[in-house]
Design a protein that fits this description.
Structural class: alpha/beta
Radius of gyration: 23 Å
Distance between the termini: 27 Å
Largest sheet: 5 strands, mixed
């Protein structure tokens, strides 16, 4: 039985193997559950938005086809998932995410990067505000009011995306927003581990800095499109060779591809929430990476779905169809009129 959920699980196992993750963590392991099974379960947990106990007792029992596909002889205890989530390193999960473009046939990247925020807790700021308001309003004791409830800093995530396929491939997580141009190079160096060439990098004004242009053009060997800030300042007063080039003009059509970065951020936060359930900062980081892995696997299966269906009528879907038909299956491109006539 092949369902979209089974295809997502199969894709997650595939990229885990490509990332070099072993089946068992140690030769002394009890070998009841494999690392692939536990990673898939933790990714599916983000899909449901439940805690460890709720996911095992309420959600997983509703998916017998997933249990059968994973080959689970027994249902794991919720503490098993919790301890594995604590044990697995964040760097290993980032290697799994790095393999998101595997088997797409992409040899040259078109990259974009953008930052977005996640709540450190699932509780809303408005709820906290109203709670404090009624506590102050109904306070009977006179004197100095009690201290306000401390709010944790939100999680700031930098996500690098392959723009043609909208697949996230690298991430950098911090606890406070800072200058975006200082956070580009660490993420780009993670992508460089794949050894693939980069054709174009598109960023917004937050990354406008001469050192970012120099890294993209001289180290990555790619074209950079980053609109310069302070548009009213004339070119001769603008500092930096590449920033002056941006002031003189750039391709608006190419630059608008950057909106796909916003699409990835929006889909992840709308479908699986913008808050985390974990209290420990390490587990919060891993929850976000698990969501990105889920999105990457889901996106890959939806793109491959186009190859098995009749030709879509939307020009956007048609371009994706041609791209994956040539790259993945190795078949030549067809003109739309001929394909529609054939169908």
């Amino acid at each position: 039985m092949t369902t979209p959920l089974i295809q997502i699980c199969r894709r997650i196992i595939e990229i885990c193997k490509r990332a070099g993750i072993k089946k068992f963590s140690s030769k002394y392991s009890n070998k009841i559950f494999t690392n692939y099974q536990l990673i898939v379960l933790l990714v599916l947990k983000q899909k449901t938005g439940s805690g460890y106990e709720g996911f095992i007792e309420e959600d997983l029992v509703e998916w017998p086809h997933v249990v059968e596909f994973l080959g689970l002889k027994v249902i794991p205890h919720h503490d098993t998932l919790n301890k594995f989530a604590k044990r697995i390193k964040q760097s290993i999960l980032e290697l799994v995410l790095l393999q998101a473009t595997a088997r797409t046939g992409i040899k040259v990247f078109v990259l974009g990067q953008d930052g977005t925020g996640f709540k450190a807790k699932k509780i809303s700021h408005y709820y906290v505000f109203r709670l404090e308001y009624y506590q102050r309003k109904n306070r009977k004791k006179k004197g100095r009011p009690s201290k306000k409830r401390k709010r944790k800093r939100y999680i700031y995530v930098q996500i690098m995306v392959e723009l043609r396929t909208q697949l996230p491939i690298a991430v950098l997580i911090s606890r406070k927003p800072a200058d975006d141009y200082n956070k580009f190079e660490p993420v780009a160096r993670k992508v460089m581990k794949l050894g693939k060439s980069i054709k174009l990098v598109i960023l917004d004004k937050g990354y406008d800095a001469e050192k970012v242009h120099e890294f993209i053009r001289e180290v990555l060997g790619a074209e950079s499109i980053i609109p310069a800030r302070n548009e009213d300042v004339p070119v001769y007063k603008t500092r930096g060779r590449y920033r002056k080039l941006m002031k003189k003009g750039y391709s608006k059509k190419k630059y608008h591809q950057r909106s796909k970065n916003e699409t990835v951020n929006s889909v992840v936060k709308r479908k699986w929430g913008d808050g985390t359930l974990a209290l420990d900062w390490r587990l919060q980081n891993k929850e976000i990476i698990f969501r990105l892995i889920l999105y990457a696997a889901r996106r890959f299966t939806s793109l491959l779905f186009l190859l098995t269906q009749k030709i879509p009528f939307s020009p956007l879907f048609f371009s994706f169809y041609n791209f994956f038909r040539e790259r993945v299956s190795g078949e030549p491109k067809f003109e739309r009129k001929k394909l529609l006539a054939r169908d």
